[in-house]
Amino acid sequence: MSAAESYLVRGLRVQDHRFTAPLDHAHPEGPSITLFARELSDPEGKDLPWLLFLQGGPGGKGNRPTGLNGWLAEAAKSFRILMLDQRGTGLSTPVNRQTLPRVGNLAAQADYLSHFRASDIVADAELIRAELGSGPWSIFGQSYGGFCALTYLSFAPEGLKEVLITGGLGPLSGPADQVYQATFERLRRRNAEYFAKYPADRELLTQLMRHVSDVPEFLPTGEQLTPERVQMLGNYLGGNTRFDALHFVFEDVFLDTLDGARLSDNFLATVASYVGRAANPLYALMHESIYVQGAASNWAAARVLAANPDFRPDAAEPLLTGEAIYPWYFEQDPALLPLRELADVLAARTEGWGALYDLEQLARNTVPVAAAVYSDDIFVDREISLATAAAVKGLHVWESADFHHDGIADDGEGIFARLLRLVRA
């Protein structure tokens, strides 16, 4: 382990840590990777107990806060927070189109990525906990971080004092298809809610989809904007404040030019910043694998989409889509183009993933757990979440219709405080 000198960022004490971990924890003598984690605390909180934060994703680096606010401000009253760049992300050994060719051929790359799931993240966390000299610690998992927390409870509960989860109770068994079947139904309702509030945007979206089908429009990064990529703006529907922010994205779509109606640079720049995966290619590569338990995903979201024609780009009144990865991502995103064959290999892979959960261990769990379940979450389905909660002994559910998937961005302090009270009740 190595640690840099601490520094202050607007009232937040920050210290960077680096650790060396085996690529495969079952074979520690093999290749190693670097893990990066950032310690965050109140300047007076240097000796407080640890809280490990597991962010959403998969494939996203830890948050880079620039001050002591939101849920972080509440957590810093009781903890030193360790913000982990999960393996393959951020300042940990990266995984992307530039680094994967060094691993070898497609089969070698797929084998390499089989060590980048929740079970490996948990093993990394336990290695880090030991190197920090911590006893059982508290963890806070948001979205995919909650999936990782359930894996932690399954395979290393001795390392945990208490667990907080927000929007992160995924399915414990079954195929990936069930996730997307639920997702499309919730998305359908969320689209209806949005267009009921902003009815003019209904015709605007239809016009926009037809326009990009007929007229070549290019993002500032050079690639062509397609109807499918316009639909990706549906991720805005998964948030409280982002729901209304989508309306402001649509408000300046078209400009009158010498060539007729064209898309504005403002709109194109917004779309470009939202749909590209250059910063987190691991998200696209590994997204469906987080549900794989025995059966290959075989592009589950694309198969379920085919059974929901109202979400097709050429539907009479096309709908916005949400959090899912489709094969065309690897045809339209320059950062993903070199990874297309690898994505197909991963989608077809059945063996070598390793277990994600131990249902028997979860049924006899003794670690205090509290989870926020958002009633209308379009990313993590309510019914799936409640079924998972019922399978974890002693898990306290706080269900709320006041928040969506990004609840901790809306009232992080209140949500964190409430969950902490629940696990300590």
If helices are DSSP runs of H or I spanning 4 or more residues, what is the number of helices?
A: 16
| The CATH topology of the largest domain | Rossmann fold
Apparent shape = globular
The CA-CA distance between the termini, in Å, is: 36 Å
Known CATH architecture of the largest domain: 3-Layer(aba) Sandwich
Q: Largest sheet at a glance? A: 10 strands, mixed
- Rg: 22 Å
Spans of at least 5 consecutive residues whose pLDDT stays below 50 are none
Name of the CATH homologous superfamily of the largest domain: Alpha/Beta hydrolase fold, catalytic domain
User: Beta-sheet strand percentage?
Assistant: 15-25%
Class of secondary structure makeup: alpha/beta
* The CATH class of the largest domain: Alpha Beta
Oligomer: single chain
Mean pLDDT: 95
SS elements, strand count: 12
Pattern of helices and strands? EEEEEHEHHEHEHHHHEEHHHHHHEHEH
> How many discrete structural domains?
2
Helical coverage, percent range:
25-40%
Short description:
The protein is α/β, with parallel strands linked by helices. The protein has two domains: 2-172 and 357-423, 3-Layer(aba) Sandwich (Rossmann fold); 177-348, no CATH class. 38% of the residues lie in helices and 16% in strands.
